[in-house]
Specification:
12 strands, 16% strand
């Protein structure tokens, strides 16, 4: 993790915020404030959990073993830097570049706002549709996004002038998606998305989690910062598995607009969603750990946007009567335990004099695997692609051949005796 990021985050911490976090925990748990403070400090140094993480994930209700499994802001940043090459992050941060690069996954037509676009070209683009979404080139949390209705403008020229007005800072104009009616039931005014995180390991895309998000209060965006809800979601069954969480850490068991219960709410096309995000995850090899906002249109799933900084908080929001297991434990299912491999290698080298030369081969193999996978996971170098992939296969083949030869030679010597 970059030291600048560490100090930037710490500089935003204040005594009043810390005091507010302690009071929140005290109110919820009834625990002594001094004890809460010292526990927060201990969690920061031991787990890199700030007071926001401590409150949000309810560290005060966890055992030490449970706390170890939780991803925190600092840990997520470090993991993201290990997996993604941020020198190319503009492909995700600039919506003009993203919509162009991932056009086949969007399920809608997009016009990139450029000075060379003429009124005639603009009129041709808007002709088939009545409603559009205008987005800034840069931005997050739904800020600066506008829903534009063609009928609200007196002419195409007035519409054109508004969209291309530099003060509005629009980067793209998108055809408005028609949401699947089954998804609109719970709240029809926003495009209710699935936030899905993917992790590519050894060239294979894996889905880490899925969360269902929906808007609220008449707003047309589903972000929590705009009053929306986030719920745990099971992609295998296509079902919401818990209540709605707000940015204020409040819990709702049914949507206040429709009265529909969150838990048990069904969403179609989930198998297609899986295929969509896994294919998208392979488009940019320099980015292995990404988040995707996916909507369900009348014609199937479509990607709204991608994020090079995958959210770590959504999948760890605490639900009642569910195991307290954090995102780290899920990630470990896909990334090899390099510490274990290193220990095995060391043990083999130490034991070689007693157990024979075969231990050198095994120790060398696990040493090689530890270094190779570490480089692939943490350096940003694709160690299993191209020439490096061929080298890997050759070296593994050589180790296996050496293992067989030593075993056979040992057997022959034993038979001669």
């Amino acid at each position: 993790m970059r030291i600048g990021y560490f100090f930037r985050v710490c500089s935003g911490a204040t005594f009043s915020k810390l005091s507010g976090a302690i009071n929140t925990v005290h109110t919820k748990s009834g625990k002594n404030k001094a004890g809460i403070f010292f526990d927060m400090v201990g969690c920061f140094f031991k787990y890199r959990a700030g007071y926001n993480d401590y409150v949000l994930f309810e560290y005060y209700n966890m055992t030490a073993d449970q706390r170890k499994t939780y991803m925190t802001r600092f840990k997520n940043k470090r993991f993201m830097l290990m997996q993604n090459d941020l020198t190319s992050a503009e492909i995700f941060n600039d919506k003009r570049l993203f919509d162009t690069r991932f056009a086949k996954y969007l399920g809608r037509r997009v016009l990139v706002i450029e000075e060379k676009i003429t009124l005639e070209q603009f009129s041709e683009f808007i002709k088939p549709w009545d409603v559009f979404i205008a987005k800034p080139a840069f931005g997050e949390c739904g800020k600066g996004i506008e829903r534009l209705v063609k009928a609200d403008f007196k002419s195409d020229e007035e519409f054109y002038n508004y969209v291309f007005d530099k003060e509005n800072e629009f980067g793209v104009l998108e055809e408005a998606i028609k949401q699947h009616p089954d998804v609109s039931k719970i709240y029809p005014h926003s495009i209710n998305c699935l936030r899905i995180a993917t992790l590519v390991v050894d060239g294979k895309p894996n889905i880490l989690y899925a969360v269902f998000k929906t808007g609220n209060n008449g707003k047309f965006v589903d972000n929590l910062e705009n009053g929306g809800f986030a719920c745990h979601f099971d992609l295998d069954t296509g079902t919401v598995t818990g209540p709605g969480h707000t940015s204020d850490m409040e819990i709702a068991y049914e949507h206040p607009y429709s009265g529909i219960k969150f838990k048990g709410f069904k969403i179609p096309y989930c198998e297609e969603v899986k295929e969509l995000v896994k294919n998208a995850a392979l488009e940019e090899p320099e980015f292995k750990y990404c988040g995707w906002d996916v909507c369900i249109s009348e014609n199937g799933p479509a990607i709204i946007e991608g994020n090079d900084y995958a959210a770590y908080d959504f999948p760890q929001l605490p639900d009642e009567d569910t195991p307290k297991v954090g995102l780290i434990s899920i990630i470990k299912q896909y990334i090899p335990d390099l510490k274990l491999w290193a220990i095995i290698a060391l043990y083999m080298f130490v034991s070689a004099k007693k157990l024979g030369s075969l231990c050198y081969i095994i120790g060398g193999f696990f040493s090689f695997m530890t270094v190779w996978y570490a480089m692939n996971s943490f350096s940003g170098i694709a160690m299993f692609d191209g020439v490096l992939g061929i080298v890997f296969k050759c070296v593994v083949g050589a180790f296996l051949l050496g293992f067989v030869l030593i075993y056979v030679i040992g057997k022959l010597k034993k038979n001669k005796k």
